[in-house]
Design brief:
binds adenosine-5'-diphosphate; disordered C terminus; Heat Shock Protein 90; 444 residues; six-stranded mixed beta sheet; 9 helices; alpha/beta; Rossmann fold; five-stranded parallel beta sheet
Length: 444
Amino acid sequence: MEETLKILVVDDDEVDRMAVRRALTKAGVQMDLSEVEEGGDAFFALSTTTYDCVFLDYRLPDQDGLTLIQQIRSSEIKVPLVVLTGQGDERIAVELMKAGATDYLSKSRISSEVLAHVLRNAIRIYRAEMQVAFANQQLRESHEQLIYKNKELERQQQHIQVQNFKLLEASRLKSHFLATMSHELRTPMNAIIGFSQILLRPKFGQLTHQQADMVERILNNGKHLLMLLNEVLDFSKLEAGRLDLKPEIFDISKVVDAAVEEMHSVGEAKNLSLLLQTDLQNPLGFNDPMRVKQILINLLSNAIKFTESGEIWVEVKELPANKVGIIVRDTGIGIAPRDFKQIFEAFRQVDQSITRKYPGTGLGLAIVDSLVKMMGGKIFLESQLGVGSMFRIELPRQVTLSTVAIEAGNLHLDNDRVFYSGQNSHQSSASVGKASIVSPKFKL
Ligand code: ADP
């Protein structure tokens, strides 16, 4: 069913109004038609009622059609306006259209077909225009929204940049604080260790059994504290890229022997035997012996710390491609595969609680990981909860330091690790940064 159109006819001539009405009725237009004679009445009607179309006589008693159209359009009244012109008025048609008329029609051409056609065209054009205007409005709104969102994003980006800068600064200050404090604390610590060692020497007077026991405790705790301080200092140096390897030609088996020997008494205190098997045809290597020993001491002290009964095995063997493999295996509590990755990160421990059973800074493996990387080596982890763990290190016999140094923050590199427990392992193999240390002149 065709919709009923609300139509307004503005004409002071009753015969002309009737002609419009008849023509539209004849054309079968369903309509609700109102009529007014003057421009003022037309404006009032349009301000208070919504029409689908207006037929407007160009010549009205109180004003001309052009002025009325301008008035209607400047009041933002949206309606299709068809101007009915008399003889000779056609020349102002262009101006009418410019002012906002939808169409115009000479009164001499009014017929039911023409009028119905003009009416439908005017409504169609008007609705299309409204749709375009609506789409444009929506476009404008989305454009404005985009501009707003862009500004908001820019603001957030700036905020993040500021926060990043603050974080970097805080991290730098923290590293500086760690480095300074651990360095400063080492001096009095060395004095405590030195003087307790002196006190224990018989030539400085005989101590009672109880006194000797107490001084020994001071000495052992002092040594432990110094070890912790050294860990923190090493870590802050690694973070700041200020830890250098001092490579030299050295006997690998002797360094491994020394590390095992050093940890022997610690193992013994827990009734754990440390078993060493060295199988090197060529024991020489070019690396920093102190740092190789440090890696072993760290792995051994972990193995002892996390093992309640059983044995700790250390194995050193030749590997293809002029590499050396060092393995530290224990029968301890083991590590769950989900923790493989994170335990190599600084300050990460499987048990992070304050009341945890095993003490430590959580820096040991992070330092080991970084040192192994500096040396161009790889570290693998195999472990099973309740069965034990195996840390396997592959080091080049001769470090090539032209490509190796530590840059700030690389303690967190972990993109290239492989893990398996039974079948899971950890492998870390990045070589990072740069340094320039000359290679040895010997053939290794
Ligand atoms: P720390 O020993 O000071 O806690 P590490 O960085 O050396 O820090 O080790 C991180 C964590 O990895 C330890 O807290 C422990 O949870 C786990 N871990 C390291 N070695 C072993 C091991 N041999 N057996 C079981 N867990 C280990």
